[in-house]
Amino acid sequence: MMYKKANKRELGEEKEKLAADFLCTLGYDILETNYRTRFEEIDIIARDEKTIVFVEVKYRNSNRYGEPLEAINYGKQRRISMGALSYLSQNKIPIESTSIRFDAIGIFKGKITHIKNAFGYMGFK
Asked: What is the reported pLDDT for 5?
């Protein structure tokens, strides 16, 4: 019997769903998944009490190219920051009076690692 190997996008969606479910168990409200801007796709946008959280999810099935969270480099952080600014603007959420945070979730060998406040806003500098 032949099994269809999941393509990269399907696997990514599966891991992002796993991450969203994990965040729900922590009490987060999921606002959006796979939010796309001209800058970046933000995997998960959630609310943790009064804070809007932008979450990047990384999955690896081997560490040949490093641990999952190592892939969230400066350029990626900058693009996510710009995407967050776009989300806030599009939804008319005032950035001056809104608490935001950038979290990261790494999934490796079935283990979920969640880092709150993984990086700060890296937008216009």
From this structure: 52
CATH of the domain at 84: 3.40.1350.10
Please state the length of the chain. Answer: 125
Kindly state whether residue 106 falls inside one of the protein's structural domains.
yes
Asked if 74 contacts 123 with a C-beta cutoff of 8 angstroms, the reply is no
Which ranges in 26-98 belong to alpha helices (H)? 74-90
Looking at residue 123, its pLDDT comes to 66
Cβ atoms of 68 and 108 closer than 8 Å: yes
CA nearest to 115, candidates 101, 105, 100 = 105
Domain of 115, in residue numbers = 8-119
Between 37-41, 75-79, 94-98, the lowest mean confidence (pLDDT) is in 37-41
